[in-house]
């Protein structure tokens, strides 16, 4: 069974319910969950706000995208004279269409309409190629700055919480692609460093705890067995 994953996040129950109604009417199974939305940041400790999550099967993402695009009828919607897209150049509109994952369905539809009015008509095959190229672009992993990685190692020793946050971010940061699949944000080497930084942070914490325990236990055979002899006993 294909797992349900988050398709859209809304700030109100009404907006989420409207999305559910549209998806259900078009045969897309869905659920809604209420909870806290934690937004990704380089350091653990992100914004935590009440939101509503509409979830659908991962293999229905592209179909749901098509439904949302088809639901927008620009002929019945009024666009204000000062709407920002009207001042976009052709190149900017084409970039918007190519990166439609960064924009809303309305802006995407309006950009295509504006291009058509300016004599640039995009066929289905051309749009498909643009979106495929964009998908491959989003799948490419990033290489973090060397200073950031070294900072993670230093933080793991001097500030274990910060080091653990950096390590966890490098290890597990990901982006959700338009087709619902998941792609790691960083390359394998960066994720390996993230794992090492996380382990080092945990090791420093455990070492500190062991040292504190060592200092608190009075002299005993058990202490000698586990911690060895020290100058304090002589």
Word description of this protein:
This protein is of the alpha+beta class and 234 residues long. It is 53% helix and 13% strand. It contains nine helices and five strands. The protein has a three-stranded antiparallel β-sheet, covered by helices on one side. Strands 4-5 form a two-stranded antiparallel ribbon. The longest helix is centred in the last third of the chain and has 29 residues. The radius of gyration is 26 Å and the shape is elongated. The termini are far apart.
Give me the secondary-structure topology:
Layout: E1 4-10, H1 13-25, E2 31-38, E3 48-57, H2 61-70, H3 90-98, H4 105-117, H5 124-139, H6 146-158, H7 160-172, E4 174-176, E5 182-184, H8 188-216, H9 221-227
Antiparallel strand pairs: 1-3, 2-3, 4-5
Helix pairs in contact: 3-4, 6-7, 6-8, 7-8
Give a quick set of tags describing it:
234 residues, 9 helices, alpha+beta, single chain, 5 strands
Q: What percentage of the residues does DSSP assign to strands (E)?
A: 5-15%
Give the mean pLDDT: 85
Percent helix, as a range, is 40-55%
Q: Rg from C-alpha positions?
A: 26 Å
Low-confidence stretches: 40-46
Trace the largest sheet across and list its strands: 1-3-2
Number of helices: 9
The assigned structural class equals alpha+beta
How many β-strand stretches?
A: 5
Separation of termini?
Answer: 67 Å
In N-to-C order, the SSE pattern is EHEEHHHHHHEEHH
Briefly say what this structure is.
The longest helix has 29 residues, at 188-216. The chain has helices at residues 13-25, 61-70, 90-98, 105-117, 124-139, 146-158, 160-172, 188-216, 221-227, and strands spanning 4-10, 31-38, 48-57, 174-176, 182-184.
């Amino acid at each position: 069974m294909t797992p349900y994953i988050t398709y859209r996040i809304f700030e109100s129950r009404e907006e989420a319910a409207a999305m559910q109604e549209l998806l259900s009417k078009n045969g897309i199974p869905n659920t809604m969950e209420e909870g806290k939305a934690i937004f990704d940041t380089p350091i653990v400790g992100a914004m935590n706000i009440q939101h509503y999550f509409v979830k659908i099967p991962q293999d229905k993402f592209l179909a749901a995208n098509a439904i949302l695009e088809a639901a927008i009828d620009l002929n019945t919607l009024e666009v204000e004279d000062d709407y920002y897209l009207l001042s976009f150049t052709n190149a900017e509109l084409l970039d918007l269409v190519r990166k439609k994952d960064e924009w809303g369905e309305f802006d995407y539809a309006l950009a295509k309409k504006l291009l058509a009015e300016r004599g640039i008509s995009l066929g289905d095959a051309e749009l498909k190629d643009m979106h495929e190229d964009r998908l491959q672009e989003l799948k490419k992993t990033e290489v973090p700055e060397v200073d950031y990685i070294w900072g993670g190692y230093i933080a793991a020793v001097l500030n274990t919480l910060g080091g653990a946050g950096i390590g966890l971010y490098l290890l597990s940061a990901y982006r959700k692609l338009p087709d619902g699949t998941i792609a790691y944000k960083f390359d394998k080497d960066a994720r390996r460093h993230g794992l090492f930084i996380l382990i080092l942070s945990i090791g420093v914490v455990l070492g500190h705890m062991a040292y504190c325990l060592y200092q608190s236990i009075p002299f005993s055979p058990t202490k000698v067995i586990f911690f060895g002899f020290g100058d304090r006993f002589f």
